[in-house]
Structures are given as structure tokens and as C-alpha cells.
Amino acid sequence: METLSHSEEQVMTALWDCGKPATRREIAARLPSGCTWADSTVLNFLLRLEKKHFVRPDKQGNKNIYTPLVRRVTYCGAASAAHLQRLYGGDLRAMLGALADTGRVSFTDMERLARYLDNRAAESPEYDYD
Amino acid sequence: METLSHSEEQVMTALWDCGKPATRREIAARLPSGCTWADSTVLNFLLRLEKKHFVRPDKQGNKNIYTPLVRRVTYCGAASAAHLQRLYGGDLRAMLGALADTGRVSFTDMERLARYLDNRAAESPEYDYD
DNA sequence: AAATATCTTCCACAAATGTAAAATAAAGTA
DNA sequence: TACTTTATTTTACATTTGTGGAAGATATTT
């Protein structure tokens, strides 16, 4: 799969967050609060995402409605797998440990996660492929 | 913290993997197997890492011995937190789900992880900061 | 010492990225 | 219809990244 820059990822994330095809204004509204990009900057990223076949713009009058062409879980899964490989050699526990140490992922989060994984384990034998 | 490019991250990862200060040859030997970088490419990345204060080269005769100046867990934790925020709005479960769906992280891995988290929860009350 | 092999640093250059102004087009409005 | 607003597309340009050759410095061998 084609790769995205961090900025492009943020725009895709905003679009995915919209939950349905969206205009550039709706997308911009979902960008992280601190974001100060000019209108044309956002539009330009959308152009580049179109070139990379990540979105399709549909003309509605003079406006564009953007539809994601890649599923979030597909792209993000691949990106996270690459990240995991590059930084931790694929060791998931190492990543979780590093995240915990930042303090930005709390013990409570981890606990919830553990419960989630336990459930997933119990209910989803289809993931047993190794 | 200063940010690194993917290539620079790979070089840092290789250095961290060495477990101790290392020469550029030792570092290069730890790069992912498929890597075809020319010698001067690796050296150049090390130069850039030096500019960014991620490594310190100590001359040993004409050779350089490179020492990491940033702890792996520090950099990787921050990088992963940023990744998590950018792609999943900070939702760790979403990331784990996406990873599981790639098939590159197996159910067994997840199970092991769940046990690890449970233990961490039991043994490390110092992580209870929220 | 001369020749040879190693190392590192400097330079170069194309491609990608971040950022946005200028140009163009379409739509709404006085 | 002429003016104003809003959208999109083009173009621009500095910075960073990926990649490695050329040049300079040090050591090793004959």
C-alpha cells in the first residue's frame, strides 16, 4: 500500500472520523484543535490523497464531497505493524511498556485493555492463526 | 523531543539493539536483512543523528564509536504515543484491534500480552496515575 | 616512504513534505 | 448582469529525506 505522510494521515483520520463522505469543511472541523492550516493547505493534502487513491472527490455543485477509498482498519493496521516492526522489532509487549512509561496511557487503560483482550481471546477463535 | 525520519529510526533501533556503544559496522550489521544502503548512507544518517543529539561519536583511532544519547523507551514511547494519537485519537484498543486484523500480530501474542498486562497491573501500582 | 585500504566528512541532487499564495471557476446576490 | 463570495486547482518555494559519490584524513602493508 502507498504510504502517507503524517499530515496526510491526520487528514485521513479526520475524514474517517466523519463517519461518512464529507466536505473539506467538515473534515477540517475534525482536525486536532491546535491545527492552524490555511484552507488551501488542507485542500492540497486532499489533492495529494486523491493522487494516492485514498479519497475520491465527488462534485456536488462547486463543492467536493470526499469519500475514503481505504478502510481505516486496513491502513492503520498496516501503519501500526510497520511502526511496531521498525521501533520494536515486532515486540508488542515492548511497545505497550514504552507507552505505559510515557504516562499518557494509564494503568486503567491497560487494565481495560487486558479485559478486552481476554474477551477477544474467549470469543474470537478465528484469530488463532499461528 | 526532536523527531526522526523512518530511516533514522531504523539506524537508532540498530544501535539500541547493539546493547552498548558500537561502531558503524556493528550498527549496520543489525539493520533489517533486506537493507542495501551504501556505507556512506549509513554514515550520513549517523551524522544527522549526531546533529539531532541522538548519538555521540567518540573517536577511537580513526574509527567512531557511537553511543545513544536518548533512551530507547523515551523516544519510542513518545513516538508510539504520537502515532496512537494521530491514527486512533489515543484509543489503544482501536490500535490493538487494527494490529490483530493485519494477521501479523497473532491471537497467541495477544493472549501473552493480556497476561503481561495483568501481571503489570498486579505488581506495578506506581502506574496508577489517573 | 609509497602504495593501499579504511574511515569519516562534505557535497550533491532528486523526491517528498509542509505550507500557502495566486489563479481560476462556479454560485449567489444586489 | 456585474459584483462578491466561496471552492478548487495551479504554482511556488523552502525544508527534509533518501541516497550516495567525491574528497580528505588515518591507518596498514609492502
Walk me through the topology.
The structure is a homodimer.
Chain A (H helix, E strand, L loop, with lengths): L5 H13 L5 H6 L9 H13 L3 E6 L2 E6 L3 H17 L3 H11 L4 H17 L7
Antiparallel strand pairs in A: 1-2
Chain B binds a DNA duplex (30 and 30 nucleotides) through helix 1 and helix 3.
Explained architecture:
The structure is a homodimer of 130-residue chains. Chain A is mainly alpha-helical and 130 residues long. Chain A is built from six helices and two strands, in the order αααββααα. In chain A, strands 1-2 form a two-stranded antiparallel ribbon. In chain A, strand 1 and strand 2 form a beta hairpin. The longest helix of chain A has 17 residues, at 72-88. The radius of gyration of chain A is 18 Å and the shape is elongated. The two termini of chain A are 24 Å apart. The relative contact order of chain A is 0.10. Residues 125-130 of chain A have low confidence and may be disordered. At the A-B interface, helix 1, helix 4, helix 5 and helix 6 of A face helix 1, helix 4, helix 5 and helix 6 of B. Chain B binds a DNA duplex (30 and 30 nucleotides) through helix 1 and helix 3.
